[in-house]
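Minutes, project check-in
Item: structure for the 69-residue chain
Input as provided by the requester:
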Amino acid sequence: MVETPTIGDAMADAKTYIYEVYTTHLDSNQMVLVQIFRDPDDGRVLHAQIAFKDAIGDSWQTPYQLEKK
C-alpha cells in the first residue's frame, strides 16, 4: 500500500492506496512494467500505466496510461 500525504498539516486525512506492480520480458528482451493503483475500500482501479525499457540499466521510457473499460 502507498500513502499519499496531503498538503498542509492535516495528515490525519492522508489516503492509502493499493499499489500493484508487475514486470516481465518480451521475446525481444524488452522489459515491461505495469503499475496499478487501486482504491482500498472497493478494489476499483484508479490509475494503471505501462512502461518499457530496452536493457538492464536503462531508464524506463515514459509510461502510457491504460484505458479503463
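Outcome recorded: The CA atoms of residues 48 and 55 lie 23 Å apart.
No further action items on this chain.
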